[in-house]
Amino acid sequence: MSIDSVLSKDLTSVRRSGALWGVAVCLTMLATMVAYVNIGRGAPPLREAQDAYGLLAGLVGVLVPIVAIVASYMSITGERASGGIKFLLAFPNTRRDVFAGKLLSRLAVVGVIVLFMFVAATAITVAKYGVLPVGVAVGVFAVSLVYAWAFVALSVAFSSATASRSQAIAAAVGSYFLLVILNLTFRFSQVVRLVYDTILGLGENPHLYAAADYVSPYIAYQKAANLVYPAAMERQVFRLPEEARETLPVYLTDEFSLVVFAAWLVVPLALGYLRFQRSDLQ
């Protein structure tokens, strides 16, 4: 066996997951519903269609990580818990083969789900407005795919570093609440402000507070979406005073979101792989 064999075997196993496909179908239905009920504001059809993708991006930001987590959190932990890891490694496979095969499998599955969701939403959008904003559609799909893959990478990393189902679930669900849900109401910047300004008395530093928020892939996704939106759709993601917005440092620009995504794709996987290599699988 090899990476290809592990990949093929895992894809077959994932296709049989009723829970995963149930979540995927629900997400696709929500995406088509968002595209259909997008309320027009009397703007030209092209702008209305672009706004529909803006609403779709909002849905993706909150719900797509759930699909990525459901698809990935048991990728390696499940094999360890069932004893299947011994079977995989009984063939001439290395731990690298298992890790890479599992990762590629889950990236592929989540990628197909995101693609299907966008195809369905695009069909509704074109039928409703008679126009397709190709640049916005392709751009939002691309950043959504990278965003979903960031959570796949994180979940596979947790799965490779944990030995039990409960640990994998706790790590994956905890990361979702910390990186997504908390950013809907409570942000990291509030903690940093409390320590930096209130406790240490070092004065206001809005750029530092915003940088703390930028650690989250959810915030990075919103910033990355600005790269593909027309100017009228761009959003102010950071809660900055007007004077602080005029001269943003490089690490707070929309383009820096690509660096944030790269970090979430590489760092967790590197740490998870190292932990997997050193784990006692007996």
Automatic annotation (TrEMBL):
UniProt GO cellular component terms: plasma membrane
Keywords from the UniProt entry: Membrane, Transmembrane, Transmembrane helix
Keyword Transmembrane tagged: yes
Membrane-spanning parts: 20-40, 52-76, 103-126, 132-156, 168-186, 256-276
Origin: domain of life: Archaea
Alphabetized GO MF terms: ABC-type transporter activity
Pfam families in UniProt: ABC2_membrane_2 (PF12679)
Name of the protein described by the UniProt record: ABC transporter permease
Species of the source: Halorientalis pallida
